[in-house]
Amino acid sequence: MLTNRQQYTDFIKAEAKRLGFLSCGISKAGFLEDEAPRLEQWLNENRNGQMQYMENHFDKRLDPTLLVDGAKSVISLLLNYYPNETQNTESYKISKYAYGQDYHFVIKSKLKDLLHSIQENIGEVGGRAFVDSAPVLDKAWAAKSGLGWIGKNSNLLSKQVGSFFFIAELIVDIELEYDTPVTDHCGSCTACIDACPTQAIVEPYVVDGSKCISYFTIELKDNLPMEMKGKFDDWMFGCDVCQDICPWNRFSKPHNEPLFNPHPDLLTMTKKDWEEITEDTFRAVFKKSAVKRTKFEGLKRNIEFLK
C-alpha cells in the first residue's frame, strides 16, 4: 500500500499514462478566484447565446468542493484525439473531435478505471469523474495544474502537443503534490483571431460563444441566422479553424485510441454524398458519435444552409 502524498501522486500519474492519457496535472481544490469575475462578465454580455446551462450552478462551476464532499485535489487529464487522416477536401466538414465514438463514454470508462486503481492502491478515496457534462471549468483547472495555458482562442494550448485533446477531471478527497501553471506562449500571434470566419474571437482570450460556428451547428436549435450565410467555411458540425491555424498544432501527433477512429465512409464522402444522406447512412456513419447530438434533422439543416 502506498503511504505518502508523493507516492500517491507518482502512482496516479503513472496510471494515467498507462490508461492512455496524454498528460496528467494536479491542483489543489478550491475557489477559482480569477475566473469568477471573468465568467460573470461573459454571462452578463450574453456570450453564451442560448446555452442556458452555462448560467446554472455558477458557484459549483467555480468551487469543486461544492461538487465533491471534502474535495482536496483536482486531477486534470488530457486525451489526444488528433486523427491520422482527415476528411476528403471536397466535403462538408465535421470537427475532428467527433470523428470517432462519443468521447464522453470513452473517457468516462478510463476515469472509472483510474479511480478504481487509486482506491485499490491508496485506500478509501472518495471522488467523482467529470467529462465536460457537469459544471466544471475544465480549461481553468488544466491550466492551474500546468498542462498548458489558455490561448487567445480560449482553448488550452500546450507547447508539446498543441490543442487537439479532450480535458477531463477526477476530483478526489485526498491531498496530493500539486503542479504549478506554465507561462503563456501566444506572444504577439493573432492567427486564430484573424482566421475565425465569423469573428467569434471578439478580443484576445474572449470568445463570443453565440457567434461561434460550433454553437450554430451544434447548440442552436432555431433556424440558422441568414446574416451568417456563406460564413461557415463548409463546416456542418463544429469547427476547427482556430485550432488548425494555431502554430502550436504543428506538434499534434495522431492519437492511438482505436475508439476514436472514424467510420471509413466519413473520410471519403463528398458534398454530393452529404447532400443526399439518408437517415440509415447517418445512423451507420455516426453510430456512437457525438454528431448524434444534432440528430439527422439538425445535420440536414446545417448542410442545406451550406449549399
From TrEMBL:
<keyword id="KW-0411">Iron-sulfur</keyword>
<feature type="binding site">
    <location>
        <position position="239"/>
    </location>
    <ligand>
        <name>[4Fe-4S] cluster 2</name>
    </ligand>
</feature>
<comment type="function">
    <text>Catalyzes the conversion of epoxyqueuosine (oQ) to queuosine (Q), which is a hypermodified base found in the wobble positions of tRNA(Asp), tRNA(Asn), tRNA(His) and tRNA(Tyr).</text>
</comment>
<feature type="binding site">
    <location>
        <position position="196"/>
    </location>
    <ligand>
        <name>[4Fe-4S] cluster 2</name>
    </ligand>
</feature>
<keyword id="KW-0846">Cobalamin</keyword>
<keyword id="KW-0479">Metal-binding</keyword>
<keyword id="KW-0170">Cobalt</keyword>
<feature type="domain" description="4Fe-4S ferredoxin-type">
    <location>
        <begin position="174"/>
        <end position="206"/>
    </location>
</feature>
<comment type="subunit">
    <text>Monomer.</text>
</comment>
<feature type="binding site">
    <location>
        <position position="221"/>
    </location>
    <ligand>
        <name>tRNA</name>
    </ligand>
</feature>
<dbReference type="InterPro" id="IPR017900">
    <property type="entry name" value="4Fe4S_Fe_S_CS"/>
</dbReference>
<comment type="similarity">
    <text>Belongs to the QueG family.</text>
</comment>
<feature type="binding site">
    <location>
        <begin position="239"/>
        <end position="240"/>
    </location>
    <ligand>
        <name>cob(II)alamin</name>
    </ligand>
</feature>
<feature type="binding site">
    <location>
        <position position="156"/>
    </location>
    <ligand>
        <name>cob(II)alamin</name>
    </ligand>
</feature>
<keyword id="KW-0963">Cytoplasm</keyword>
<dbReference type="Pfam" id="PF08331">
    <property type="entry name" value="QueG_DUF1730"/>
</dbReference>
<dbReference type="Pfam" id="PF13484">
    <property type="entry name" value="Fer4_16"/>
</dbReference>
<keyword id="KW-0560">Oxidoreductase</keyword>
<feature type="binding site">
    <location>
        <position position="246"/>
    </location>
    <ligand>
        <name>[4Fe-4S] cluster 1</name>
    </ligand>
</feature>
<feature type="binding site">
    <location>
        <position position="186"/>
    </location>
    <ligand>
        <name>[4Fe-4S] cluster 1</name>
    </ligand>
</feature>
<protein>
    <recommendedName>
        <fullName>Epoxyqueuosine reductase</fullName>
        <ecNumber>1.17.99.6</ecNumber>
    </recommendedName>
</protein>
<feature type="binding site">
    <location>
        <position position="153"/>
    </location>
    <ligand>
        <name>cob(II)alamin</name>
    </ligand>
</feature>
<dbReference type="InterPro" id="IPR013542">
    <property type="entry name" value="QueG_DUF1730"/>
</dbReference>
<feature type="binding site">
    <location>
        <position position="214"/>
    </location>
    <ligand>
        <name>cob(II)alamin</name>
    </ligand>
</feature>
<dbReference type="InterPro" id="IPR004453">
    <property type="entry name" value="QueG"/>
</dbReference>
<keyword id="KW-0819">tRNA processing</keyword>
<feature type="binding site">
    <location>
        <position position="132"/>
    </location>
    <ligand>
        <name>cob(II)alamin</name>
    </ligand>
</feature>
<comment type="pathway">
    <text>tRNA modification; tRNA-queuosine biosynthesis.</text>
</comment>
<feature type="binding site">
    <location>
        <position position="61"/>
    </location>
    <ligand>
        <name>cob(II)alamin</name>
    </ligand>
</feature>
<dbReference type="InterPro" id="IPR017896">
    <property type="entry name" value="4Fe4S_Fe-S-bd"/>
</dbReference>
<feature type="active site" description="Proton donor">
    <location>
        <position position="132"/>
    </location>
</feature>
<feature type="binding site">
    <location>
        <position position="189"/>
    </location>
    <ligand>
        <name>[4Fe-4S] cluster 1</name>
    </ligand>
</feature>
<feature type="binding site">
    <location>
        <position position="167"/>
    </location>
    <ligand>
        <name>cob(II)alamin</name>
    </ligand>
</feature>
<feature type="binding site">
    <location>
        <position position="192"/>
    </location>
    <ligand>
        <name>[4Fe-4S] cluster 1</name>
    </ligand>
</feature>
<keyword id="KW-0004">4Fe-4S</keyword>
<feature type="binding site">
    <location>
        <position position="212"/>
    </location>
    <ligand>
        <name>[4Fe-4S] cluster 2</name>
    </ligand>
</feature>
<feature type="binding site">
    <location>
        <position position="242"/>
    </location>
    <ligand>
        <name>[4Fe-4S] cluster 2</name>
    </ligand>
</feature>
<keyword id="KW-0671">Queuosine biosynthesis</keyword>
<keyword id="KW-0408">Iron</keyword>
